[in-house]
Amino acid sequence: MIYVGKSNPKDKVRRCHEIINREQLSHIFPLKDYYDYVWFFWVRLTSMWTSKLQHGMTVESDKIMQELLTMLTYDSSEQGWAVFSRGLYDMTKGKGDILLTVLDNSKQWEDKVDYPDKFVPVMNEAISGVHPEHHCNRLILPGQTGHIPERVVCSECGRTMDKYVMYRCCTD
């Protein structure tokens, strides 16, 4: 498990890293290496997005574009999120509020996890059953990518997202 935080890690990420280390919640990268790994993670996702766009792919027609859009939307959000995987093929993900709901209600689905390989698929099923009354996703694409698509659909509901220009100063 790795805490990747945001594409532009700030003080909050450092504090989370210190808590994980101090309370020995997990084995973690040294802080000096950590920022490089996080930077590479987000740059790789952005590069993949840009490359797919340059090759004419769209979110509607390409599964990888759909997954990239979801991850980049998570980065643009002020909420938490998580990805769970086991092996090469089992993966599930979700926004923090949905994941907390699913985990709080684990009594409803934990009996389906009769061996470790079932955890991710069962959790994925539970996540897909949670539909918040209202959601609002935003996607912040770096301006230096050279290509901002005219049309982007929401990774949750499939509707076309409104397009804005945003200037942001965030102290986290």
Automatic annotation (TrEMBL):
Pfam families cross-referenced by the UniProt entry: SEO_C
Coiled-coil residue windows: none
Domain Sieve element occlusion C-terminal: 1-171
Source taxon at top rank: Eukaryota
One GO BP annotation of this record: phloem development
InterPro entries linked: SEO_C (IPR027944), SEOA (IPR039299)
Protein name according to UniProt: Sieve element occlusion C-terminal domain-containing protein
Species assigned in the record: Fraxinus pennsylvanica
